[in-house]
Amino acid sequence: DEGGLTKEFFSLITEKLFDPAYGMFQMQEETGVLWLNPGSLESDTDFMLVGLLLSLAVYNHVLVDVPFPRVLWKKLLGKPLNQTDLFDLSPEMADGLQKLLSYDGPDSVEDVFCLTFEAGFRFCGEQHTVELKPNGSSIPVSNLNRREYVQLYVDHILSSSIQRQFEAFRAGFLALFHPSGLLRLLSPRELEVLACGSQALDFHKLQAVAQYGGGY
């Protein structure tokens, strides 16, 4: 069946596990990508098994329909992250932080942006905040410390807020791939294509090399 049963197995189980309604991952409305849910109550073992499932799909050459942002594949490979990686997850948030860094108006950063060293998130339908540094709720973001704020904010969104979930997920994924082996040779883009296939389909090139028969 050319892997039909295997493909169906991975298709059905990934559809269930990666469904935002299941609670382990959440859909980013702005970009339509899936991200680890920082408020998930699922155990580390559950996240490890999901990572293992993804690695099994890659190992068996089965493409899965999992719309992860490029930054997650980058994290799986252990690549260092930076501010631009936030654009994969939320261009609006990343653009707002960039405007904060580049602001050079007549009024102070503190008066214009009215920020403190906190980050907000939604959990169980309610808005919550977390301090990005000790006593962060009492520290206003100013022209002098705005770069520190952006760095801490990006780290919180991409790393610290999902550290428990991601470490377990990555441990499961690496169970079949030693980081010093095959993965060391791949770029985040190549790993994404290996797992999910290419999302950029050029039908003009396909038409140019297609050969028609039977009178067509």
General description of the model:
- The structure is a single chain.
- The chain has helices at residues 4-17, 44-59, 70-76, 86-89, 91-102, 109-113, 146-158, 163-173, 188-196, 203-209; strands spanning 25-27, 34-36, 118-123, 126-131.
- The protein has 216 residues and is mainly α.
Task: Give a nutshell description of this structure.
The chain has 216 residues and is mainly alpha-helical. It is built from ten helices and four strands; from the N terminus they run αββαααααββαααα.
Keywords:
two-stranded antiparallel sheet; 10 helices; 216 residues; globular; two-stranded antiparallel ribbon; mainly alpha
Structural class: mainly alpha
Radius of gyration: 21 Å
Number of strands: 4
Mean pLDDT: 88
Give the termini distance in whole angstroms.
29 Å
List the helices and strands in order: HEEHHHHHEEHHHH
Shape: globular
Helicity range = 40-55%
Summarize the helices and strands and which ones pair or pack.
Blueprint: H1 4-17, E1 25-27, E2 34-36, H2 44-59, H3 70-76, H4 86-89, H5 91-102, H6 109-113, E3 118-123, E4 126-131, H7 146-158, H8 163-173, H9 188-196, H10 203-209
Helix pairs in contact: 2-8, 3-9
